[in-house]
Amino acid sequence: MATERLYFDDAYLRSFVARVTQRGTYAGQPAVVLDHSAFYPEGGGQPGDRGTLNGVRVVDTQADDAGEVWHMLGEPLEADEVQGAVDWERRFDFMQQHHGQHLLSAAAESYFNARTVAVHLGEEACTVDLEIAGLSMEQITEIEARTNAMIWADVPVQARFVGPQELRTLALRKPPQAYERIRIVSAGDFDHSPCGGTHPRRTGEVGSVVLRRWERYKGGVRVEFVCGGRAVRDYRRKTELLMTLAAELKVGQAELPSAVERLRGAEETQRKRLAQAEERLLDYDARELIAAAEQVRNIPVVVRWLDGRSLDNVRLLARRIAELGGVALLGLREEKAQLVFTRAAGLPFDMGALLRVAASVVGGRGGGKPEAAQGGGPDVARLDEALTLALNELRKGEA
Ligand SMILES: [Zn+2]
Predict the structure, then answer these.
(1) What architecture is domain 4-86?
(2) 258 CA distance to ligand 1 centroid (A)?
């Protein structure tokens, strides 16, 4: 004998007395089946109710294939008769989201011929997947406005079981699984849907709907929405966010876009200035290093290892030394030893060959072209030795 669903007749029933008909576990959790229950078991994209039975926490509600409703408990329950209490705040929130979804689906279908193919009502986000190639901002705004108009029309919502005769006469948004006795939920003349869910008495109780995000999904469009209390909480969060940003930038909320644009412009200018300053500094560094450089065949050869610079910076410095007519044998101590060798165009040195020799000293590899080469190895302690070896190799050609 399946559990009698009290919420079918009265979705507002929050407390009831019932008899335990089965005791056991469901999905590894202690659980009981009742002869009748106001708890809604997960289904139709809506999570199962929570609440208490004799003060013991009901953490989830699920229905099995036989139609029994399993109340999953925080701890085992011994009593044969129980006082049930549904977590009403949470249930009413889901009633708002759930009925809002009915109306949203009806609006999307009647105005844009976009059928709902999937629904998810989550603790945070609710979504409908619409069968339509795309939706513009105008269409989203239109669906939102039409749905709110149905909510504010505040028409009665009726849920009733309908026989096969009448069923065929109703303009159903989605066809039922079978044309037998089936529960139809109607919102005035707006919408008739087969549904076993919990609904408010009037559409007005949904409060309002906001479509807050949408994206292409599986060839259709997934629309994220919030209704009623959630829409208000969402608005509150966003208001606080805007207040924080406006205070941070010292502008009114309406000036936020232009303030952000100004900031981005200022940042871009600063970035360019910084790049120019870095280039001037590099030039200065390069000239200073050349002035103090060793001479090999009257060519200045800068032999240095550097700390605290980025590899990019060392590369640019080496390039600048080459541009100024010199040779750079630079090392960088990071987690491993880095080597960057360059020379001015036309000089008779092969930096690629030189680097291979030096890199082997630090236990690594590297190479490149005659004008520029790069490499490194793990043996940071031998970086100095590697650079000295490279300088000595250069000097070998001296007569
Ligand atoms: Zn429903």
Answers:
(1) Beta Barrel (2.40)
(2) 44
Query: Does the model's pTM come out above 0.85?
Result: no
Task: Tell how far the Cα of 11 is from the centroid of ligand 1, in angstroms.
Answer: 11
The H or E element containing residue 187 is strand 182-187
**CATH label, 92-236, candidates 3.30.980.10, 3.30.499.10, 3.60.15.10, 3.55.40.20:** 3.30.980.10
Q: What is the pLDDT of residue 176?
A: 65
Here the tokens at position 146 are 């039409």
How far is ligand 1, taken at its centre, from the CA of residue 49, in Å? 15
Q: How many CB atoms lie within 10 A of CB 347?
A: 19
- The CA 348 to ligand 1 mean position distance, Å, reads 84
| CA 200 to ligand 1 center in whole angstroms | 10
| Residue 152 CA to ligand 1 centre (angstroms) | 18
Banded model confidence at residue 140, pLDDT cuts 50, 70, 90:
very high
pLDDT at 46 over 60: yes
Tell which CATH classification among 1.10.3720.10, 3.20.20.70, 3.30.390.80, 3.10.310.40 matches the domain 284-396: 3.10.310.40
**254-305: pLDDT as tens digits:** 999 999 999 999 999 999 999 999 999 999 999 999 999 999 999 999 999 8
Cα–Cα distance for residue pair 196/200, rounded to 1 Å: 13
DSSP state of 50: -
Domain ranges of the chain: 4-86, 92-236, 284-396
Phi, psi of 368 (to 5 degrees): 160, -155
186-230: pLDDT as tens digits: 998 888 998 989 999 999 999 999 999 999 999 999 999 999 999
Per DSSP, the residues of 304-324 read: EEESS--HHHHHHHHHHHHHT
DSSP 65: T
Q: What pLDDT, on the 0 to 100 scale, is given for residue 170? A: 78
Query: In terms of Cα–Cα distance, which of 10, 203, 18, 174 is closest to 91?
Result: 10
Cα first-last separation, the chain: 107
* CA 183 – ligand 1 centroid, Å: 10
